[in-house]
Inverse folding.
């Protein structure tokens, strides 16, 4: 399928609720009851079943649902040399009052990569493509990794290993260029960079707390993050579409941050060399559409107007009205529709059933086909 169609009129971010058989297999593996090979066989079977359901639902994008991961970003980091992790005792991040029980992650040395495991994961999903579908790979953005280890909590540890944060940033660029080349050589033509850093930066109080920066230094940090992502994106093959997904946290139907895009719109929408944005817009925490006026060039915007945080279906007419409201700032022919985030950014998943998950995606498709009768070209 032509990459000019990516992202598709009706699309999704990437992660899906884990089926019970997969949850049990992962738990059994942790307890030593099954082997790694047995776990992989279960993952393979669950991913094949998921892709069949994605195709049956009429979607043109396929993903592995992030079924081989415990969290949307950490497993990617654990695939790099120089990064370690251990089980958290009390939760290391709070989402609207709920502690997230995801592993503590830290640098053990300078980062590098030989062959990232996600490349093999992508090959599996690539083999399930057909003439009507395109396999999408999702990974955290370079800026996400930089912010994770250079923020207020981990900066001192990072500077025990690196002389400067600039040196650390250079290694991030090298690692990402290697992984993206390997993914491209494996046939990847649709890459999504999940970049929740910006979801924190929209909230000034949270931005200051997480980064340890002074308020007057936040614009400099934003420029640094855009530059870091651009250094990785620049020089990509013309037939590789790279999109960015921005949200404010998605853990067990809770959120991490709130705030409109206003304060980040100019550097993020105006200066990042991305092909498209998947933007969280499912409730009032995201603010209005006016910041979209800064979206530069011919970038596409995938409006995340359908929530994955609860099972209630949105009012179709209201969503259509919101799409046309957004079209005041980005032409309708450069807009698409999706849920605001994945259904299970972490293994625990959001508070809805698999049946309710597919009902959400059916609604996305139904609305998109009404708003855009003709496919993207």
């Amino acid at each position: 399928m032509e990459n000019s169609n990516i992202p598709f009129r009706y699309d999704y971010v990437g992660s899906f609720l884990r089926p019970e058989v997969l949850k049990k297999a992962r738990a059994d593996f942790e307890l030593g009851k099954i082997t790694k090979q047995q776990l992989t066989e279960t993952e393979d079977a669950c991913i094949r079943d998921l892709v069949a359901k994605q195709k049956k639902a009429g979607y043109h994008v396929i993903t592995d649902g992030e079924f081989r991961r415990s969290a949307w970003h950490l497993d990617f980091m654990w695939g790099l040399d120089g990064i370690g992790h251990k089980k958290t005792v009390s939760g290391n991040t709070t989402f609207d009052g709920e502690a997230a029980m995801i592993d503590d992650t830290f640098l053990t040395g300078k980062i590098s990569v030989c062959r990232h495991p996600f490349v093999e994961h992508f090959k599996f999903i690539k083999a399930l493509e057909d003439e009507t579908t395109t396999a999408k790979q999702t990974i955290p953005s370079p800026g996400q990794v930089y912010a994770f280890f250079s923020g207020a909590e981990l900066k001192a540890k990072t500077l025990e290993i690196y002389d400067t944060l600039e040196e650390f940033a250079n290694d991030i660029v090298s690692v990402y260029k290697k992984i993206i080349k390997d993914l491209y050589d494996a046939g990847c033509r649709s890459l999504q960079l999940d970049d929740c850093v910006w979801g924190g930066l929209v909230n000034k109080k949270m931005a200051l707390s997480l980064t340890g920066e002074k308020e007057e230094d936040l614009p400099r940090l934003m420029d640094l993050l855009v530059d870091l992502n651009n250094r990785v994106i620049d020089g990509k093959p013309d037939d590789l579409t790279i999109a960015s997904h921005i949200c404010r946290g998605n853990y067990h139907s809770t959120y991490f941050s709130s705030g409109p895009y206003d304060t980040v719109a100019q550097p993020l929408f105006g200066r990042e060399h991305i092909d498209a944005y998947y933007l969280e817009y499912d409730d009032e925490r995201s603010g209005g559409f006016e910041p979209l006026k800064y979206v530069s060039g011919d970038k596409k915007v995938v409006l995340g107007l359908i929530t994955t945080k609860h099972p209630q279906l949105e009012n179709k007419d209201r969503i259509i009205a919101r799409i046309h409201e957004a079209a005041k700032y980005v032409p309708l022919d450069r807009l698409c529709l999706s849920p605001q985030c994945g259904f299970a950014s972490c293994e625990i998943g959001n508070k809805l059933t698999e049946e309710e998950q597919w009902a959400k995606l059916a609604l996305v498709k139904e609305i998109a086909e009404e708003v855009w009768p003709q496919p993207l070209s």
In short: The CA atoms of residues 86 and 104 lie 5 Å apart. The radius of gyration is 19 Å.
